[in-house]
Amino acid sequence: MPFDLSTLETPAAIVDLDRVEANLHRMAGYSREHGLDWRPHTKTHKTPMLGRMQMEAGAVGLTVATVREGETMADVCDDILLAYPPLGSKKLERVSALAERVRLTVALDSERALEGVARTGRSAGSQIGILIEVDVGMRRVGVESPQEAVRLAAAARDAEGVEYRGILFYPGHIRGRVESQSEEIAVVSERLGQLLQALGDVDLHPEVVSGGSTPTVWRSHEFAGITEVRPGTNIFNDRTTVVVGACDWSECAYSVLATVVSTAVGGQAVVDAGSKALAREELRGEGGGYGALLDRPEVVVRGVSEEHGILDLSETTWRPEVGDRVRIVPNHVCVSVNLQEYLWTVRGDQPESVLEVAARGRVTVA
Ligand SMILES: Cc1ncc(COP(=O)(O)O)c(C=O)c1O
User: Fold this and answer.
1) Distance of CA 72 from the midpoint of ligand 1 (Å)
2) Distance of CA 207 to the CA centre of its chain
3) Using CA atoms, how far apart are residues 143 and 167, in angstroms rounded to an integer?
């Protein structure tokens, strides 16, 4: 659908495809250089065409967090990692159907989840791949000790309907500046080293060691034994990624187009993008606020209510007028994308196409 950027109704999510392509190219080059498989996490964009672009740029497959994302990405990719333990009979029915469409791998950390997936694999007549999720410091999911990993890996190897493929970790607790991550990466590597040793000792050496996040992305090769990286955010990047030093501001490919609706209160301008367009995600790191202007990063969204964003004008001489339009880079792009129905793609100032954020939501009620 052709559209005119100057009249597009706001708020609207804008994606610059030139920047997306540059980000994908950089990531593909990094993975090649370090001999790592690249399996980007599609929770960031939830959009089949962007998944296809990732595959065309050299990804070996795609990662998803929800079954809905898996069902959507199955249209563009036949090798999917569900990096989330599926539980409950309804969800497992959908996992079964997905396993009939694609080479599916599931990450999990409990026998209960393993039993369900194995049952599903048997009913689908397929071998669902299993990665044992290990906690490396985030303390969210993942078994804590090498012994537990060995026990679960052995159970996966022995169960029918599944195939043990390796381990998965997510270093989501490493959120500091790229140059300050060495110590934390070393700690994770030590844990991984012990784990690999324990698995190797009992003939369960993992074929896949899947890791990666956007803050650590350019240092992924430093994690001991890693074979695969799963960054999500770095297809678009965001204000947090800039703050940690994992990208430049010019590599931010996603912004929310908004209109100035009020300048009545001094020292600020109010736009029509609030927490329901940008999300209310705190900035991890210096700067505060909920986003900043793409072409004036010194102008920060100081506050948000649902449909209002407050631009702080204290660091600029720029004085917008009611009706002016601005583009805002949010702190955390994945949550902002999830609030959008469509992504309006551009190349520079040139409009391109409209993409539906098709994998939003959880269930499809047909
Ligand atoms: C399991 C898992 N893998 C990979 C990612 C991608 O992380 P990022 O968005 O920092 O690239 C996430 C993000 O939440 C995740 O939960």
Assistant:
1) 18
2) 23
3) 10
- What six digits make up the tokens of 1? 């659908």
Assess contact for 312 and 291: CB atoms under 8 A.
Answer: no
The alpha carbon of 38 and the centre of ligand 1 are apart by a number of angstroms equal to 13
Q: Which of 208, 195, 179 is nearest to 142 (CA)?
A: 195
Nearest ligand 1 atom, CA 83: 1
pLDDT at 366: 55
Count of CB atoms situated within 10 Å of the CB of 272: 19
Ligand 1 centroid to residue 63 C-alpha, Å: 9
pLDDT, tens digit (0-9, with 9 covering 90-100), for 102-121: 999 999 999 999 999 999 99
Residue-wise pLDDT tens digits, 199-209: 999 999 999 99
Statement: the pTM of the whole predicted model exceeds 0.70: yes
pLDDT digits (tens, 9 = 90+) for 130-146: 999 999 999 999 999 99
Number of neighbouring beta carbons within 10 Å of residue 215: 26
> Ligand 1 centroid to 267 CA: how many Å?
37
**In Å, how far are 36, 47, 240 from 104, measured between CA atoms?**
19, 19, 31
**Minimum CA distance residue for ligand 1 atom 2:** 170
